[in-house]
Amino acid sequence: MQNFTLEEMKPSEHVLNMIRQIAYSYRVMKVNGKNEAYCLN
């Protein structure tokens, strides 16, 4: 049986930068009881 370590599942720095960019660009706010996404760009 093969053991999986966290090191094998670690995403690349490029993927992490893309996730950070999306997280900084998009926000969610509640409007009339519904969650609405909006972009800061």
**Into which percentage range does the β-strand content fall?**
25-35%
How many individual β-strands?
Answer: 2
Biggest pleated-sheet summary: 2 strands, antiparallel
Q: What form results from the Cα inertia axes?
A: elongated
Mean pLDDT: 78
Helical/strand content category: alpha+beta
Q: Strands of the biggest beta sheet: in what spatial order?
A: 1-2
Q: How many H/I helical runs?
A: 1
What Rg, in angstroms, do the CA atoms define? 17 Å
Helix percentage? 25-40%
Q: What is the straight-line distance between the termini? A: 48 Å
- The low-confidence runs, each spanning 5 or more residues with pLDDT under 50, are none
Overview of this protein structure:
- This protein is of the alpha+beta class and 41 residues long.
- The longest helix has 13 residues.
- Helices cover 32% and strands 29% of the residues.
- The model has no long low-confidence stretch (mean pLDDT 78).
- It has a two-stranded antiparallel sheet.
Give descriptors for this structure.
41 residues, alpha+beta, two-stranded antiparallel ribbon, 1 helix, 2 strands, elongated
